[in-house]
Amino acid sequence: MQESLNLTDEEIVEKIRLNDRDLYAVIIDRYKNKLLRYAGNLVHDEDKASHIVQDSLVKAYINLNGFNTKYKFSSWIYRIVHNEAINIIKKHKKEIPLLDDFDFESEEDIAKDFDKKEMIIYLEKCLDSIPLMYSEPLTLYYLEEKSYEEISDILRIPTGTVATRINRAKKLMKKTCQKN
Q1: Domain 1-97 maps to which CATH number in 2.60.450.10, 1.10.510.10, 2.40.33.20, 1.10.1740.10?
Q2: Along the 180 residues of the chain, how does pLDDT read in single tens digits?
Q3: Is 104-180 a domain of CATH 1.10.10.10?
Q4: pTM (2 d.p.)
Q5: What's the CA gap between 1 and 132, in Å, rounded?
């Protein structure tokens, strides 16, 4: 199992396909927290995000034979989470998303934690204030550190459209979210 930590995602998928199913735990360890953050940014609900990620990881495992290892696994798994999140958003459209309380590791510096919490809430409100078609690529680029090509794969839009949406999102954020 230790040597598998040095393998690429695509190599691990190949080994899983050849009946080393226990290696899927490595994939889960690599992606669980990232996918939770991504899903949380989309649905703004920790419980829903957790369900989305669980469902997505199960779907990915079931459909591993359909994954083309010539492409990036990360884009494929993010796409599954994206689809699950969009389904949840459509299903619960009438619900008003509430911002979750955030836990911070440092209890010593309360003022710093408060500022950090306040900034996170502010950024989430700003992201919520712009349409999903703009906030999602922005989230993928800045928070998930995905390239334009990866975002293109995840959202199934051309790379030029990714660039345009990120540019427009930045302008919208600047216009609508300036602190008073």
Answers
A1: 1.10.1740.10
A2: 566 678 999 999 999 999 899 999 999 999 999 999 999 988 888 999 999 999 999 999 999 999 987 889 999 999 999 999 998 888 876 554 444 444 444 444 555 555 556 666 677 778 878 888 998 998 888 888 889 999 999 999 999 999 999 999 888 888 887 753
A3: yes
A4: 0.64
A5: 39
